[in-house]
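MarR family transcriptional regulator
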Amino acid sequence: MTPEPRPNAADHLDDDDYPAYTMGRAAELIGTTPAFLRSLGEARLITPLRSGGGHRRYSRYQLRIAARARELVDQGTPIDAACRIIILEDQLEDALRLNDELRRREGPSDRAAGS
């Protein structure tokens, strides 16, 4: 029986969803405080994974969301409104992507016939 390969940290270098950053490092990277990151968790905008010891771990994707929230808050938007804006932006992006995908599947001849 061949042993399963051990996961290598380098395997996750390109994974946007891998929880690689501690709270302190995440806050440092986006120029905010750990309290700000906790508030985003309380608002349910991002949900960091927990390490075995219970420490919050953030992915690059979550850091991009947190950075967008910080940008909106820095412009004077209340944090709850900033979170809602980001959720709506994400939903719009998903809808546009789905719409494009459906149009590609439909093909040019189907569109001409449907017009």
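thats it. The first strand starts at residue 21 and ends at 22. The longest helix spans residues 79-114. bye
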